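Q: Got a minute? One more chain.
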Amino acid sequence: MGDTDRLRLAIIIGSVRLGRFGPVAAEWLASRARLRDDFDIDLIDLATAWLPDVMSTELSARKPEAVQDLAPWLAAADAFVVVTPEYKQSFPASLKSAIDWYDEEWHAKPVGFVSYGGASSGLCAVAQLRQVFAEAHAVTVRETVSFHEYKDRFDAAGRPFDAEGCHEAARAMLDRLAWWARALREARAAEPYARATEPR
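A: Always. Here it is, folded:
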Protein backbone atom coordinates (compact mmCIF):
# COMPACT_ATOMS: atom_id res chain seq x y z
CA MET A 1 0.00 0.00 0.00
CA GLY A 2 1.41 3.38 -1.03
CA ASP A 3 1.80 6.31 1.34
CA THR A 4 -1.01 8.19 -0.40
CA ASP A 5 -3.39 5.27 0.25
CA ARG A 6 -2.67 5.12 3.98
CA LEU A 7 -5.21 6.46 6.44
CA ARG A 8 -4.46 8.66 9.45
CA LEU A 9 -6.14 7.36 12.60
CA ALA A 10 -6.38 9.61 15.67
CA ILE A 11 -6.86 7.70 18.93
CA ILE A 12 -8.25 10.08 21.56
CA ILE A 13 -7.93 9.35 25.29
CA GLY A 14 -11.08 10.93 26.71
CA SER A 15 -10.55 10.78 30.47
CA VAL A 16 -8.29 13.22 32.30
CA ARG A 17 -8.68 11.78 35.81
CA LEU A 18 -5.71 10.70 37.89
CA GLY A 19 -5.21 6.94 37.85
CA ARG A 20 -7.27 6.54 34.68
CA PHE A 21 -7.16 3.38 32.59
CA GLY A 22 -7.51 5.19 29.27
CA PRO A 23 -3.80 5.30 28.34
CA VAL A 24 -3.50 1.52 28.83
CA ALA A 25 -6.45 0.81 26.54
CA ALA A 26 -5.30 3.40 23.99
CA GLU A 27 -1.74 2.05 23.84
CA TRP A 28 -3.06 -1.47 23.42
CA LEU A 29 -5.30 -0.43 20.52
CA ALA A 30 -2.50 1.61 18.94
CA SER A 31 -0.25 -1.46 19.08
CA ARG A 32 -2.88 -3.45 17.18
CA ALA A 33 -3.41 -0.70 14.61
CA ARG A 34 0.35 -0.37 14.00
CA LEU A 35 0.46 -4.01 12.88
CA ARG A 36 -1.69 -3.09 9.90
CA ASP A 37 -0.49 -1.59 6.62
CA ASP A 38 -3.35 0.88 6.18
CA PHE A 39 -3.09 3.19 9.21
CA ASP A 40 -0.72 5.85 10.50
CA ILE A 41 -1.44 6.53 14.17
CA ASP A 42 -1.69 9.73 16.20
CA LEU A 43 -2.30 9.27 19.93
CA ILE A 44 -4.05 12.28 21.46
CA ASP A 45 -4.32 12.54 25.26
CA LEU A 46 -6.80 15.17 26.42
CA ALA A 47 -4.99 15.29 29.78
CA THR A 48 -2.03 16.93 28.03
CA ALA A 49 -3.97 18.92 25.42
CA TRP A 50 -4.93 21.52 28.08
CA LEU A 51 -8.15 22.54 26.35
CA PRO A 52 -9.88 25.34 28.30
CA ASP A 53 -13.18 24.76 30.08
CA VAL A 54 -14.70 28.09 29.12
CA MET A 55 -15.64 28.96 25.56
CA SER A 56 -17.27 31.95 23.95
CA THR A 57 -20.81 31.97 22.60
CA GLU A 58 -19.52 34.04 19.66
CA LEU A 59 -18.66 31.68 16.81
CA SER A 60 -16.27 34.24 15.36
CA ALA A 61 -14.27 34.60 18.61
CA ARG A 62 -10.60 33.71 18.37
CA LYS A 63 -9.99 30.25 19.79
CA PRO A 64 -7.42 29.77 22.57
CA GLU A 65 -3.93 28.65 21.60
CA ALA A 66 -4.37 25.12 22.99
CA VAL A 67 -7.46 24.66 20.81
CA GLN A 68 -5.60 25.94 17.75
CA ASP A 69 -2.66 23.63 18.50
CA LEU A 70 -4.80 20.50 18.48
CA ALA A 71 -6.93 21.47 15.47
CA PRO A 72 -4.45 20.42 12.74
CA TRP A 73 -4.11 16.94 14.25
CA LEU A 74 -7.88 16.44 14.19
CA ALA A 75 -8.22 17.98 10.74
CA ALA A 76 -5.56 15.64 9.33
CA ALA A 77 -7.30 12.52 10.67
CA ASP A 78 -9.25 10.30 8.29
CA ALA A 79 -10.80 8.42 11.23
CA PHE A 80 -11.03 8.56 15.01
CA VAL A 81 -11.18 6.11 17.87
CA VAL A 82 -12.42 7.57 21.15
CA VAL A 83 -11.29 5.77 24.30
CA THR A 84 -13.82 6.48 27.02
CA PRO A 85 -14.77 5.35 30.52
CA GLU A 86 -18.29 5.50 31.85
CA TYR A 87 -19.00 7.90 34.71
CA LYS A 88 -22.53 7.81 36.12
CA GLN A 89 -23.82 6.16 32.93
CA SER A 90 -22.25 8.80 30.70
CA PHE A 91 -18.91 9.94 29.29
CA PRO A 92 -16.38 12.41 30.77
CA ALA A 93 -16.92 16.17 30.61
CA SER A 94 -13.41 16.51 29.19
CA LEU A 95 -14.50 14.56 26.13
CA LYS A 96 -17.64 16.64 25.57
CA SER A 97 -15.59 19.82 25.85
CA ALA A 98 -13.10 18.52 23.29
CA ILE A 99 -15.88 17.64 20.84
CA ASP A 100 -17.53 21.04 21.30
CA TRP A 101 -14.34 23.03 20.68
CA TYR A 102 -14.17 21.75 17.10
CA ASP A 103 -16.52 21.66 14.16
CA GLU A 104 -15.36 20.92 10.62
CA GLU A 105 -12.58 18.69 11.95
CA TRP A 106 -15.25 16.02 12.68
CA HIS A 107 -17.31 16.41 9.53
CA ALA A 108 -17.90 13.33 7.37
CA LYS A 109 -15.35 11.19 9.19
CA PRO A 110 -15.85 7.83 10.92
CA VAL A 111 -15.57 7.35 14.68
CA GLY A 112 -15.06 4.10 16.59
CA PHE A 113 -15.05 3.53 20.33
CA VAL A 114 -13.04 1.68 22.95
CA SER A 115 -15.01 1.79 26.20
CA TYR A 116 -14.44 0.49 29.68
CA GLY A 117 -16.37 0.36 32.92
CA GLY A 118 -18.01 -1.97 35.36
CA ALA A 119 -20.70 -4.44 34.38
CA SER A 120 -21.89 -2.19 31.54
CA SER A 121 -18.45 -2.11 29.87
CA GLY A 122 -18.81 1.63 29.31
CA LEU A 123 -21.46 1.09 26.63
CA CYS A 124 -23.83 3.66 28.15
CA ALA A 125 -21.15 6.27 27.45
CA VAL A 126 -20.80 5.00 23.88
CA ALA A 127 -24.56 5.17 23.29
CA GLN A 128 -24.59 8.84 24.27
CA LEU A 129 -21.47 9.62 22.26
CA ARG A 130 -23.14 8.27 19.14
CA GLN A 131 -25.79 10.96 19.47
CA VAL A 132 -23.20 13.68 20.10
CA PHE A 133 -21.07 12.71 17.11
CA ALA A 134 -24.15 12.58 14.88
CA GLU A 135 -24.69 16.25 15.73
CA ALA A 136 -21.02 16.86 14.88
CA HIS A 137 -21.68 15.43 11.38
CA ALA A 138 -19.48 12.39 12.01
CA VAL A 139 -20.32 8.75 11.27
CA THR A 140 -20.00 6.23 14.11
CA VAL A 141 -19.33 2.58 13.32
CA ARG A 142 -21.29 -0.26 14.86
CA GLU A 143 -18.27 -2.33 15.87
CA THR A 144 -16.99 -1.39 19.33
CA VAL A 145 -14.29 -2.67 21.67
CA SER A 146 -15.50 -2.73 25.28
CA PHE A 147 -14.09 -3.97 28.57
CA HIS A 148 -16.29 -4.84 31.55
CA GLU A 149 -14.63 -4.92 34.96
CA TYR A 150 -11.59 -3.62 33.11
CA LYS A 151 -9.22 -3.69 36.10
CA ASP A 152 -9.34 -7.48 35.98
CA ARG A 153 -8.95 -7.76 32.20
CA PHE A 154 -5.34 -6.62 31.69
CA ASP A 155 -2.00 -7.76 33.06
CA ALA A 156 0.67 -5.48 34.53
CA ALA A 157 2.22 -4.99 31.09
CA GLY A 158 -1.03 -3.63 29.64
CA ARG A 159 -1.97 -6.80 27.73
CA PRO A 160 -5.51 -8.22 27.86
CA PHE A 161 -5.83 -11.69 29.36
CA ASP A 162 -8.36 -12.62 26.66
CA ALA A 163 -5.95 -11.65 23.89
CA GLU A 164 -7.68 -13.57 21.10
CA GLY A 165 -11.14 -12.15 21.74
CA CYS A 166 -9.86 -8.61 22.24
CA HIS A 167 -7.69 -8.73 19.13
CA GLU A 168 -10.61 -9.96 17.05
CA ALA A 169 -12.85 -7.14 18.35
CA ALA A 170 -10.15 -4.59 17.52
CA ARG A 171 -9.66 -6.06 14.05
CA ALA A 172 -13.38 -5.88 13.28
CA MET A 173 -13.62 -2.25 14.40
CA LEU A 174 -10.47 -1.17 12.55
CA ASP A 175 -11.61 -2.94 9.38
CA ARG A 176 -14.90 -1.07 9.48
CA LEU A 177 -13.21 2.24 10.24
CA ALA A 178 -10.86 1.75 7.31
CA TRP A 179 -13.76 1.08 4.94
CA TRP A 180 -15.64 4.18 6.01
CA ALA A 181 -12.48 6.31 6.12
CA ARG A 182 -11.65 5.49 2.50
CA ALA A 183 -15.22 5.97 1.32
CA LEU A 184 -15.67 9.29 3.11
CA ARG A 185 -12.24 10.61 2.08
CA GLU A 186 -13.14 9.97 -1.54
CA ALA A 187 -16.53 11.60 -1.05
CA ARG A 188 -15.01 14.72 0.56
CA ALA A 189 -12.51 14.99 -2.29
CA ALA A 190 -15.27 14.71 -4.89
CA GLU A 191 -17.55 17.22 -3.15
CA PRO A 192 -16.69 19.27 -0.04
CA TYR A 193 -18.96 18.42 2.87
CA ALA A 194 -21.54 21.04 3.88
CA ARG A 195 -24.37 20.99 6.37
CA ALA A 196 -27.76 20.44 4.80
CA THR A 197 -28.95 23.79 6.22
CA GLU A 198 -26.16 25.79 4.56
CA PRO A 199 -26.95 27.56 1.27
CA ARG A 200 -25.37 25.98 -1.78
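A: The chain has one domain: 7-190.
Q: Perfect, thanks.
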